[in-house]
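Lab meeting prep.
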Amino acid sequence: MRDADHLMRQAVADNVFPGGVLLVSKEREIIFFEAYGFANIFTKREIRKDTIFDLASLTKPLATTLAIMKLFQEFVLDIEQSVGSLIPQFRDTEKADIRVRDFLAHCSGLPDHRPYYGRLCKVSPDRRKGLLRKLLVAEPLICPTGEQVIYSDLGFMILEWLVE
């Protein structure tokens, strides 16, 4: 862990980023946990181990991917499984054979974005998740799976559904 610690300290010193927290665990045991740099570079407020970060659009690649990989590690999910085998609503669609791996790699064939919010904001909050899922099931592919890399919010919405 000395190398990782050194890299984090050097990155902060080189202004690659203002600060961060590094936690490494294995089999539910924390191996390394350290805070580096500043939460606010103007006030010089240091980052602590319990600093809360706004992940914004990093939630998709960080939180969702980590949740998927945790399920993989615990043998709950295999990234080679198809969405049709995991979510019954996809079984009889053109998306049935798309693997978890394809969603993670952004090569599912789904578009990058759709303005679903326009329809979702018109229904009561308790119905939004159901409507969103119907829209995801109905969404057509824009290219064959594996043909193109398209950073797809929709693919990660489906992964979030899997995690639930």
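Slide two material, second protein:
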Amino acid sequence: MQSTWLSVHFFHAGDHDQLLQLLIRPVVQQAGCPYFFIRYWEGGPHIRLRLYVENGWQAEVKRLLEDIARIYFATYPTHRQDATYPLQQLQPNDSWQYIPYVPEIDRYGNVHTMSLAEQQFHLSSVYVLQEINPAAALTQAIRMNLALLQALQLTPALTLDICHRFIQGWLPRLFLPEQDRQQQEDYYLQRMQEKYLVYAPALTHAAVNLWQEIAQGNAPSALQIFADGNLDVFTQYRQLGFRESQLAAVAGSFLHMGHNRLGVSNLDEAYIMYFTRKCLEHIYGIP
């Protein structure tokens, strides 16, 4: 039977980590189909859940998720400060809305690779739902980054370039528009290096061990499944003729969306990739 994406947005002003654990997790477990989620803000803070459901089961899955959502929002009601979003057309808080999923085809290659990207979204979402721990989100992000970048199987130079480009793309979000950009870049890179040096001894040791474990197939189960699945996705991209530069661009988007699922703020993304790059330099033996 043919399947299509069922897209539902859960608008909620409360703790989204809790919503993922107590609403999204039971929905996807009981639905038993491929899925992915992202965190978003347009129309009010919410989780976007996409479920790849057989057409004959769409109504049943809707009943399932609505029953779970109704109980969750009744148990954990929230009040949204709507004045915080003065320029937005807001959706009702503590509600679910069926809003069509529009695939970002160009961002992830083309119409032939979109299903591969959605496989990666599923792998990422499964890992995050299994391992979600807000207190360890930054560490988890680095672990996911290392697993994904190893699965990409590019040269050290190209892998480090992905990190560099990511940092350059996200660092300006920390800048003040009225101040000199170069001075601010130098300042934040120095701050990142200082912060990295505090954690470097433990972080680099753990990164080397994790890198070896993934390569040998004996990393912690959830992360190994994530790494192996990404390897398969990238292999299929290559079979469809994608060059290394194209894969690098797609991987950058995968990295960003992994951070999103973990709940990492956009302002922290440059820090995470700086730490990831430094770990990789240590793994590659680059002083």
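Talking points for slide two:
Residues 114-284 form one domain.
DSSP finds nine helices and four strands in the chain.
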